[in-house]
């Protein structure tokens, strides 16, 4: 990936990319949790989570995690196709 960057510039670029990826991962995780919370937690009359809410959360998180994994795998396939062809998909 070195595009005529010196070592310092390359390290800085890598560091920025890592931070960006971490922020994106945390945002995705937060959105996943928030969606399941909104879908499953609706009784605020007690401090504890009710068993039906806990079950709903576990099913929701599992479902969304599996969907995320499938999407990630598909994006990786598309990226590999792009790399193999040297351009965008469909070219």
Features:
91 residues, mainly alpha, Helix Hairpins
| The number of domains | 1
- Output the CATH class name: Mainly Alpha
Helix/strand/pairing class, anyone? mainly alpha
Along the chain, the helix and strand elements come as HH
Pfam families: zf-Tim10_DDP
Membrane topology: Peripheral membrane protein
GO cellular component, one term: mitochondrial inner membrane
Subcellular location: Mitochondrion inner membrane
Outline of the structure:
Its main location: mitochondrion. Helices cover 76% and strands 0% of the residues.
Structure, explained:
Residues 17-77 form the Tim10-like domain. One of its GO terms (molecular function) is metal ion binding. It is found in: Mitochondrion inner membrane. By secondary structure, the chain is mainly α. 76% of the residues lie in helices and 0% in strands. The chain contains two helices and no strands. The protein has helices spanning 7-40, 51-85. Helix 1 (7-40) runs antiparallel to helix 2. The longest helix is centred in the C-terminal third of the chain and has 35 residues, at 51-85. The radius of gyration is 20 Å and the shape is elongated. The model has no long low-confidence stretch (mean pLDDT 88).
């Amino acid at each position: 990936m070195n595009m005529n960057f010196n070592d310092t510039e390359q390290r800085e670029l890598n560091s920025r990319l890592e931070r960006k990826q971490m922020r994106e991962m945390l945002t995705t995780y937060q959105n996943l949790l928030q969606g399941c919370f909104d879908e499953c937690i609706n009784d605020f009359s007690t401090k504890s989570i009710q068993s039906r809410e806990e079950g709903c959360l576990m099913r929701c998180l599992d479902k969304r995690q599996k969907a995320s994994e499938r999407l990630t795998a598909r994006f990786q396939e598309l990226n590999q196709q792009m790399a193999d062809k040297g351009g965008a998909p469909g070219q």
